[in-house]
């Protein structure tokens, strides 16, 4: 037997070692010949006034016809309309070069594109490529999308003087005076049912022209491209998302900066959608929405496309203002998998690690490996899994009221999203509203997550709802609110291993709900908490399993053991193998202990239980039910 156990243990350890040797995906970078064409030779003028669209397009076309190479943008302020990159072209911006896209919307034709995972008509992106191979944007210059001309702005995101200046610039203000729109056309389109730009039968060119101002373009859109490099350049001021690689492969993003005003609606940094083999490294993001965001299409359209975002490496990136530092979702209906994120810093992001979805999406997000994450001043959660995403800013605006979702079971089908198999380690956060928030849905829990080696300083600790198979190991929670430090609702198969917390915490664990079970607490010293654990809303002591924690001196174990006896044997003492209840020596010992609890507390329920047992076993004539003098010794 010992030999068998040894073999099994050795096999398990070997399996773990193999699993930890992760083989990272290989991303192939493009290569270019050194032939170079300057846009100046095609008539471009860097005065910030002359529209250079034709000159830049001519330079790209000429270089592409000769087999590709570098299209060079010298220092200067180059005004242009939308441009299209072709295969084998490296658009290179010199130090001091700014490629400024015009705010004249008439320069942007309406074209078939994709927005938030759904085929939609949009204004043509300032820079785009479709079906191109071996392309790049490199250098030290700036690409500016002139996005302020396109975006609506919420009043609550500006101070009073900024708001007055914006309103005085033109445009229109909503009836409730809370939102500024660049035009009445934009405002009217915003009142239409969701996705007015969606491509559906019955909508013709005239219809889309009537809402043109609403159809904001992403700054860079790369569709079905292969071997892509973005390096060194600053991308800023996008009308909607900044960088949007879509259904593309072998994307390398290195040493870039992405900047948007924090009030920029949909001002995402990079949205990698249904792409394969991606490397993003050593880049800086300071944006108005999610920063490093992974997507794969929305709802039925995303499932129909069926292309997950997969094989992604992100390392050495810094994120400042954003809704989320590293994000998956919410449009993840095609799935997301095999991602490796490391050595990233989030400063002032609304949420650090943000994983969001909702019913109707479908899609499986799995095999996500994250380590060495450093955070500071996070207004929301340091780590968030949320399957009730409601398409709202993660931090409510002043005066905004939000209601909790209605909890109900629904049938599991292709529209049910799945989050599983994440491993997150070495996370350090100095300041957050909540350390960890995990919220699944009743019919599909967030499951199989490992969170380990963390120090999290936050207002609130850990909140786990509708989750299965979550391991919390070597986590130090330094929270201001400690009633409780850890809150569990309708969750099971949880492991809390070596959890430390602030001295004098009011309550370490609160277990809620009759579906909470198999919660294992081990290697955790509860002696520094005033109270270790409470069971509420149908949860009981049976919800937790034995662990080797140190009990709090405030816990009255004699009472807890007595409570356990009452629950195990409410009427009579019967053990496995007994055909009927009968008097046992064991029961005498237990009743003697309960009598001592009654004497110490004066609580009549203990006396009543003893009396009830005596009434059951001791008959009116003094005989003891089931007692045989030759078999038992009742002392």
Q: Which structural class best describes the helix and strand composition? A: alpha/beta
Q: In percent terms, what proportion of residues is strand?
A: 35-45%
Q: Count the helices. How many?
A: 9
Question: What does the largest sheet look like?
Answer: 36 strands, parallel
Characterize the overall form: elongated
Number of strands: 41
Mean pLDDT rating: 90
Instruction: Please estimate the helix content.
Output: 10-25%
Uncertain segments: 1-20
> What Rg do the Cα atoms give?
31 Å
Distance from N terminus to C terminus (CA atoms, Å) equals 40 Å
Descriptors for this entry?
elongated; single chain; 36-stranded parallel β-sheet; 41 strands; 9 helices; alpha/beta; three-stranded antiparallel β-sheet; 635 residues; 39% strand; disordered N terminus
Structure description:
With about 625 residues, the chain is an alpha/beta fold. It is built from nine helices and 41 strands. The protein has a 36-stranded parallel β-sheet that branches. A three-stranded antiparallel β-sheet has the order 13-15-14. The chain has a two-stranded antiparallel sheet with strand order 8-9. Strand 14 and strand 15 form a beta hairpin. Helix 7 crosses helix 8 and helix 8 packs antiparallel against helix 9. The longest helix has 19 residues. The radius of gyration is 31 Å and the shape is elongated.
